[in-house]
């Protein structure tokens, strides 16, 4: 892989963090790596998010609903998120609180045990795979990314396009770039359950402020990550690669 990268005229990275890591790990010239963010079909995401909400997720009792998604793997930090939920419910006293975690993976049994030990069986749900979670994102009060590391977390962008407030760990890499250093959503330290719980408490307490910020966030995300802007970025990338090939004669 290192040889393939070294022989390329341009290497594309999905975030600035991945660009830096690739330069360090593969010992590549930094100016040969370009950041090309993923792009998203905004119209399709809007259409999917407006599909009917599954019956099991329709709101009954008025509660604050948090959603998260990803493989049930240590990388995603769901153990930290569940500990934060324990603090939110049992220490901050937010009893009308539900956390739904979408995904499958090898850590399910450990997370189920953690939920039981934390006395959160009514508040934290491991809901498994769902073919279209976007209506649930849109209907939720907060989306949380609790990862220990990422490359470019697409679920975070999708949640922002659904208009839901977002909160993320400031993990390497991607979230800080997507959230513009915390301007478009909350950022907390990695593996800090108490900081995550305090941030969730702030969202619950000041939800209108967070919701207003999410409206600005969606506009920024559409501008930066839409298919139109993405195609323009990739076209320019190809043009630079061709120009560089012409210069080197390779």
The tally of beta strands, per DSSP, is 8
Beta-strand residue fraction: 5-15%
Note the run of SSEs as H and E: HEHEHEHEHEHEHEHEHHH
The low-pLDDT segments are none
How many helices does DSSP assign? 11
- Counting helices, strands and paired strands, the structural category is alpha/beta
Report how far the terminal alpha carbons are from each other: 19 Å
Strand order, biggest sheet? 5-4-3-6-7-8
C-alpha geometry: globular
Mean pLDDT: 93
Rounded Rg: 20 Å
Largest sheet: 6 strands, parallel
Notes on the protein architecture:
The protein is of the alpha/beta class and about 250 residues long. About 50% of the residues lie in helices and about 15% in strands. The protein has eleven helices and eight strands. The strands form two sheets. Strands 5-4-3-6-7-8 form a six-stranded parallel β-sheet, with helices on both faces. A two-stranded parallel ribbon has the order 1-2. Helix 4 packs across helix 9. The model has no long low-confidence stretch (mean pLDDT about 95).
Which secondary structure elements does this structure contain, and how are they paired or packed?
Blueprint: H1 2-7, E1 11-13, H2 16-26, E2 33-35, H3 42-49, E3 64-69, H4 78-91, E4 97-102, H5 108-117, E5 124-128, H6 134-139, E6 142-145, H7 154-161, E7 166-169, H8 175-178, E8 186-188, H9 193-205, H10 207-225, H11 227-248
Brief summary:
By secondary structure, this protein is of the alpha/beta class. 48% of the residues lie in helices and 14% in strands.
């Amino acid at each position: 892989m290192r040889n393939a990268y070294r022989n390329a005229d341009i290497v594309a990275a999905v975030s600035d963090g991945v660009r830096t890591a690739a330069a360090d790990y593969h010992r590549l010239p930094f100016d040969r790596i370009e950041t090309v963010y993923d792009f998203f079909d905004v119209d399709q995401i809007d259409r999917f998010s407006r599909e009917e909400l599954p019956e099991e997720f329709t709101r009954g009792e008025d509660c604050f609903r948090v959603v998260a998604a990803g493989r049930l793997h240590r990388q995603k930090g769901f153990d930290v998120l569940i500990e934060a939920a324990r603090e939110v419910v049992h220490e901050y006293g937010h009893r009308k609180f539900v956390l739904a975690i979408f995904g499958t993976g090898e850590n399910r049994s450990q997370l189920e045990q953690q939920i039981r030990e934390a006395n959160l069986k009514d508040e934290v749900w491991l809901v498994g795979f769902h073919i279209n979670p976007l209506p649930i994102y849109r209907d939720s009060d907060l989306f949380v990314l609790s990862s220990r590391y990422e490359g470019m977390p697409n679920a975070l962008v999708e949640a922002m396009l659904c208009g839901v407030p977002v909160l993320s760990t400031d993990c390497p890499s991607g979230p800080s770039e997507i959230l513009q250093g915390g301007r478009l959503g909350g950022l907390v330290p990695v593996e800090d359950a108490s900081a995550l719980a305090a941030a969730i408490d702030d969202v619950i307490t000041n939800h209108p402020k967070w919701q207003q910020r999410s409206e600005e966030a969606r506009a920024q995300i559409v501008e930066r990550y839409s298919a139109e802007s993405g195609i323009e970025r990739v076209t320019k990338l190809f043009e630079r690669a061709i120009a560089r090939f012409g210069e080197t004669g390779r």
